[in-house]
Model the fold of this input.
Amino acid sequence: MPPEYAVPALEKALDILETLAETPEAMSQLEIALAVDRSPSQIFRVLTTLERRGYLYRDPQSGAYSLSLRLFDLSHRQEPLRSLTEAALGPMRELAAATGQSCNLSVREGGGVRVVAQVESPADFGFRVRVGALFPLETTATGAVLAAFAGDGGADAGAVADARARIRADGHLERSDSLQPSITDLVFPVLNRQRVALAALTVPYVATSFSTVPADRVRDLTGRAAAAIGAALGL
Done:
């Protein structure tokens, strides 16, 4: 086997990126240093380089750092994610047209849910999320579905395990949105042959005078679209 070579600067950069990816809020240089177990002076040049290369955004007022969309942009050039979005956009467009509702596709990213595709409602009114947006895994309906179908052996216990078991039994999740209670999230997993979620298809259902298709019909169509995406991937 070839010898293992330590690359301190690279190790620092990866530690910083991974720390920020797992933290929903921006972090100061001191907070990052504490999180990666190094001194602020040890990570200063790495932070500066990551900011200069566009991987980090530094707030001009607070000086706090957060991840930019640079990594998201790079991941979209990767074949697996590109194949996923290409397979999804056709069924998603058909779903939006048939229901008059917007829909989005998300994948699990660390402790969060990353939106990778979005099709807006053809109606005059609808709810949309930004492609690239990152939401919490545990507090969102989309995250709950991705976690339920993670295929990680079911290490959870108690109420969490029961909730995930119900989602698996139902094959989907329907509940009020945690951030917008007037919206009902209809979420179906996009499954591979091992019934592990590759992604989650979500319709943030808005019940207004523009909503001519009832929620139960939208739910059925969303399930069919998720299955169509999974079939197109052939995994």
